[in-house]
TrEMBL record:
Annotated protein name in UniProt: Uncharacterized protein
GO cellular component: membrane
Entry's family note: Belongs to the major facilitator superfamily. Proton-dependent oligopeptide transporter (POT/PTR) (TC 2.A.17) family.
Transmembrane segments: 116-134
Superkingdom of the source species: Eukaryota
Amino acid sequence: MGVGLFIYIFVMASAALVEKKRRDHPNPSSLTLFWLLPQFFLIGSDEVFTYVGQLEFFYDEVTDGSRSISSAMFLSEIEIGNCLSTAIVKIVERATGGEQQGWLRNDRNRSRLDNFYWILTAVNAANFLVYLWVSRRYKGKDGSVASVEAPVDMDVHH
């Protein structure tokens, strides 16, 4: 899971850099779609590591009778994240001057999406640090303390 969270920092930094290049380019419409390929590759990698890791964690750490509930918790966690994303957009929109003057305007060429992406980069870096802090202190259902250096058990038949 931590690998996915770490990759997402680079997803947002890449988005900020590409948006800055687009804004500063003399003819932004001449930029091709291929400028977005690194972001799509990184976000796909992020989701593989994060979502699969989260689902495996929820599935492994609950009792046998609670596995369906853990799947529901996993999907609920994704929805909570979507709601928090909407809240961040609204907070940044209001803090920077609204739709007319702020970073998130209706006009993409007058918006400052690069600044918004840098904020998301910082939020995701903080999220990764919190994840590291919590994961170092987490005790599994068998009572063992997880270690970042511990080898990953790839055996799916426990």
